[in-house]
Design brief:
This protein is mostly beta strands and 396 residues long. It has a single domain, classed as Beta Barrel (Porin). It has an 18-stranded antiparallel β-barrel. The longest helix is centred in the first third of the chain and has 7 residues.
Length: 396
């Protein structure tokens, strides 16, 4: 399955439409407790998720997946600054599990359950140390929660905020499991025994502006070094909102004679609060080699639900047009509609395109439904299919 843009189950296309691609910080659990016990347990929370998927592949047929699953998370209270956490994830086939879409199940297309998080966390002043299985969101290693179970990672993570408005991240990422893993139901090594070393810095000391820089070291891997920077600005004037963003990635290929890939990106968005409409345009180009999304959905501004700049190959280009409508302006509170049109072009002028339509409705703070329809005609890689996903989420 191709790498897919990060989907916060509320709506991925809506984020792209707003131009709000902000620096991403590894997750430290701060969710309000559903259960509290001062003696030991601090929080118990999670979600129940129902998922439906239909893929109509030209020349191959239709495939359907129906699943019920979710997440149960437990945190302990801290003792001398040290606490523990664990999350149990499960996805279970209901009648049909035919595959050929976003992976809902394991490598054999069967139901599975996994202890996706199991960590110790230390908090001392402005420094957090988290060791073990955990959810992480960085530009080239992220949860990519687009199906039933997100990516989770086995890692050591150090986060420091001693410098005002600045977050420094150091990480050693060793294994991953979940939707983008080769074996979703089992934690497997990333880059053999060399793993991945990560350094990230984000700065948000200027109102409306977010800056970040990241470096990934993958000794002896096909892409052995990744550098990434981005800048995003948001503002509003008299009911009009706007956003501007720029990004650059350098991806070094380790093979003898291989050129490194230089990826450039920019986006712009504009909105009118009185009518609830935001429109956006984003552009990416990969020079000298192909782009890679890393271990997750990737950070590129033009990433759609299924296709990304990576599918355009060497010297590929991508253009994304987006629109989002907040229906609360006409009294339909909780309803959001969005659409995105991606066009890819490879070095020979061959094109691929994808149309995404997303409808999201929040009944209340706990219950929501999301429907995602995608129509893909990727002449570059010879893929033509339609994909529909519907998720019902109940959080507790």
């Amino acid at each position: 399955m191709k790498k897919i843009a990060t989907l916060s189950i509320i709506t991925a296309t809506a984020l792209m439409a707003s131009g709000n691609i902000t620096p991403i910080e590894p997750k430290v659990e701060t969710v309000a407790p559903a259960v509290q016990d001062d003696a030991f347990i601090k929080t118990v929370n999670g979600y129940i998720r129902g998922g439906y998927q239909n893929s109509d592949i030209t020349g191959d047929g239709k495939y359907t997946d129906i699943a019920l699953g979710g997440k149960l998370h437990i945190d302990t209270n801290a003792w001398n600054g040290i606490s523990a956490g664990a999350s149990f994830y499960t996805t279970n086939a209901l009648e049909k599990h035919e595959g050929n879409g976003v992976p809902f199940f394991d490598a054999n297309n069967d139901s599975y359950s996994i202890l996706g998080e199991a960590y110790l966390q230390g908090q001392w002043g402005n420094t957090t140390l988290k060791i073990g299985r955990q959810e992480i969101d960085t530009p080239f290693a992220d949860t990519d929660d687009i199906g039933m179970i997100p990516n989770t990672f086995e890692a050591g993570l150090l986060i420091n905020k001693d410098i005002a408005d600045t977050t420094i991240v150091l990480a050693q990422v060793q294994k991953m499991a979940g939707v983008d893993a080769d074996k979703p139901s089992k934690f497997t090594k990333i880059n053999g025994n060399n793993h991945v070393q990560v350094l990230g810095v984000t700065y948000e000391g200027i109102e409306g502006l977010a800056l970040s820089g990241w470096y990934y070291n993958l000794k002896e891997y096909a892409v052995d070094k990744i550098g990434y920077i981005d800048a995003n600005y948001e503002g509003s004037i008299n009911g009009f909102t706007y956003g501007l963003g720029g990004q650059y990635a350098s991806q070094n290929y380790s093979a003898d004679g291989a050129q490194k890939a230089s990826i450039y990106g920019a986006n712009v968005s504009a909105g009118m609060e009185s009518v609830g409409l935001t429109i956006g345009v984003a552009y990416n180009k990969s020079a000298d080699n192909s782009a890679t999304n890393g271990f997750g959905g990737g950070p590129f501004f033009t990433s759609a639900e299924h296709l990304t700049l990576a599918e355009a190959g060497i010297n590929g280009e991508a253009l994304m047009l987006t629109a989002e409508w907040d229906a609360s302006v006409v009294g339909a509170n909780g309803l959001t509609l969005s659409a995105g049109k991606l066009t890819l072009e490879d070095a020979n002028g061959v094109e691929g395109d994808e149309l995404d339509i997303v409808a999201s409705y929040a009944f209340n703070d706990d219950l929501s439904i999301d429907a995602i329809y995608s129509d893909i005609d990727d002449k570059i890689n010879g893929d033509k299919f339609k994909n529909t996903r519907v998720f019902v989420n109940y959080t507790f």
